[in-house]
Amino acid sequence: MNVCVIGTGYVGLVTGVVFADLGNEVICVDNDEKKIETLKNGIPTIYEPGLEEMMHRNMQDARLFFSTNIGEAVRKSEAIFIAVGTPPKDNGETDLSYVENVAREIALNIDRYKIIVNKSTVPIGTGDIVREIIEKNKKGNVDFDVVSNPEFLKEGTAINDTLYPERIVIGAPNKHVAMKLLELYAPLERLMLITDVASAEMIKYASNAFLATKISFINVIANICEKAGADISLVVKGMGYDSRIGASFLQAGLGFGGSCFPKDAQSLVHTAQKFGENFNILEEVIKENDKRVNRFVERIAEKYDTLEGKTFGVLGLAFKPNTDDLREAKSIKVINSLLEKKAKIKAYDPVAMENAKKIIPNITYCKNAYEAAEKADGLIIITEWNEFKFLNLDKVKKLMKNPIIFDGRNIYDPNKLKRLGFRYISIGRKEV
Ligand code: NAD
If you take atom 42 of ligand 1, which residue's CA is the nearest one? Predict the structure, then answer.
């Protein structure tokens, strides 16, 4: 099938590359000329394991193209995927302006029947909005369908998630277009669910909001464990053995960040209000999440007479491991809060430092974790990159001025850290 993907970010690029790998001819479109130029030169604009190799293979086989020319891409394609950003407005509502702009551009260029697929995360009713915009702006009597096909990939494992999704949701207005999408995804041989458009739109928000709820829930349990002397890792183990609960998304820590959960939770609260419903549970989930960083920084501050002039090594800047994405990353909030208290920061992240320099320029960036630990008054773990789990902790201890570790992700065993001579403060577990 001839496909174009409009918006070549984390979702659009991975989707386009995988569609090409399945044998389709794909044009990835973006209005960011620099991004397209970089991609045309074979350089991925995001860090995502496995992406570069798959991208090169499909560019060489002439199945994958990059362009800023949306008109040409639309005219050449049978299916047009919209994968632009849907950021939050100040009131939590989803800003649909990028999606609406793309819809207008599609309308000006459709010359025959097209399938327009919303892959961006968009609130219930957006399919109708896109349809109305195209209907109003199209030239001539061309037919089209608007489908919702929400994306569930996770940054850091995006290629794998796209090749082996647990489910593919296709919200289609009629059987014909549903069959077309089924055909496109058939080579993946994964479970597919056909729904109406509104239900597909809701599935995405309900899924993210539910996962966010699990995270805030376990974080509150961790708060209680800290005070009551219980161990959250054992509590989660015990809960997770119950197949009705499961252990995934029950890691206590600094809360959920990234470009999806915070905005999607807010958006769903807003949608509920729009339909005259309260979503108090989700509002509390967001509030709990917002408290995580302050609580953590307060626990750090408690351990010093003053933070002024103290140096902290910070390990991990990306919002989660295996990505270079810093959107809503806890690192930014923790670091800014420590800087406000006049502490000094030496940070290290395996891949996110170039992006971080644009957002937090006034700190020292280190070439590895050991350099970040050197002469530090404390070491703070923000992102649970695998390499941090396997540091030579003896070496870390010798390098540090004061061997105290604040672990926002519970990557170490407290007993081991105690044995090695560290003071170790983690989440939902006894301080040692
Ligand atoms: P992103 O910001 O990485 O990428 C969006 C891209 O769209 C940018 O490159 C931007 O330049 C481009 N763009 C904006 N307006 C355009 C236009 N008029 N024409 C062409 N290109 C345009 O965003 P993302 O993280 O890929 O997210 C895209 C959507 O997918 C969002 O709705 C998001 O909620 C959803 N989503 C994201 C993830 C994720 O992990 N990032 C997972 C699932 C769903």
Answer: 153
pLDDT band at 293 (very low <50, low <70, confident <90, very high): very high
**Same domain, yes or no, for 183 and 291?**
no
Same domain, 13 and 151: yes
Non-local (6+) Cβ contacts of 76 within 8 A are 2, 4, 27
Q: Which residues pair with 407 in a beta bridge?
A: 381
pTM over 0.90: yes
Q: Which amino acid is at 296?
A: F
Query: How would you classify the pairing of strands 114-118 and 79-82?
Result: parallel
Quick one: pLDDT band at residue 3, thresholds 50, 70, 90? very high
Does 202 reside within a domain?
Answer: no
pLDDT in tens, 277-288: 999 999 999 999
Question: Based on the structure, what is the number of domains in the chain?
Answer: 2
Task: Tell me which residues have their CB closer than 6 angstroms to ligand 1.
Answer: 6-12, 29-32, 35, 70, 83-86, 98, 101-102, 120-121, 151, 153, 155, 259-260
pLDDT given at position 112: 95
At residue 267, the pLDDT reads 97
Mutation to probe ligand 1, out of 13, 70, 82, 84 (largest number of atoms < 8 A from CB): 84
Contact 369, 391 (CB under 8 A): yes
Instruction: Judge contact between 150 and 200, C-beta under 8 A.
Output: yes
